Amino acid sequence: MNENKKLNKRQYAYEVIRKRILNGTYVPGQRIIIDQIAKEVGSSHIPVREAIHQLESDQLIEYKPNSGAVVRGINDKAYMEILEVLALIEGYATVLSAPYITRLGIEKLEALNNNMKVLLKNYELEQIGELNRDFHFTIYTFCPNQLLIQNITQMWDRMDAVRRTGFTFFPQRTPKSIDEHDTIINMLKQKTDMEELESFARMHKLNTLKAFKERN
């Protein structure tokens, strides 16, 4: 019973800190005050420290000398490396998902992309970012390799942690990305050759990397 209670407090602390990192309440470089979190979640320091260690494994937090746990930042080099890795593993995840995707799954992808087109006309780019994630992870819900999706999720979370700082803001990429989504949907519908699908899904992510390099 006590062990379950401890796990619940650790999970609660984890969710509180993680949510604040992802929604921008805690910004890159900000120190995580263990005393403060412990008071807020009504626990001792131990569950909070364990939650922080879990977030460190998720690459959302890092320990710095004389500072302790701080929200992990991201620089140009790290961001480009993440996109390169995501291009490889998301291409593969899309291929693994393709044989299992349902008609309802395709319809959801079409609805999400159509909503993104509407938001683009209204220049609501932040909401487009959220729908973009929903679009790709809708595909991955059909992927049988959960370890692969876990790794993709951790990388997206790390990028989302700095999304609100403007670091990844290059709107010229958005219309092209939405058009590429239409192509991915059609390839899934038509059960395109797996190598061709994987190549296009990989290029979809690499095009974002290219836009990032050319943003200035």
TrEMBL record:
One of its GO terms (molecular function) is DNA binding. The keyword DNA-binding applies. Keywords: DNA-binding, Transcription, Transcription regulation. InterPro entries: GntR_C (IPR011711), TF_FadR/GntR_C (IPR008920), Tscrpt_reg_HTH_GntR (IPR000524), WH-like_DNA-bd_sf (IPR036388), WH_DNA-bd_sf (IPR036390). It comes from the Bacteria. Pfam families: FCD (PF07729), GntR (PF00392). Residues 7-74 form the HTH gntR-type domain. PANTHER family: TRANSCRIPTIONAL REGULATOR, GNTR FAMILY (PTHR43537), UXU OPERON TRANSCRIPTIONAL REGULATOR (PTHR43537:SF5). This is DNA-binding GntR family transcriptional regulator. It comes from Bacillus chungangensis.
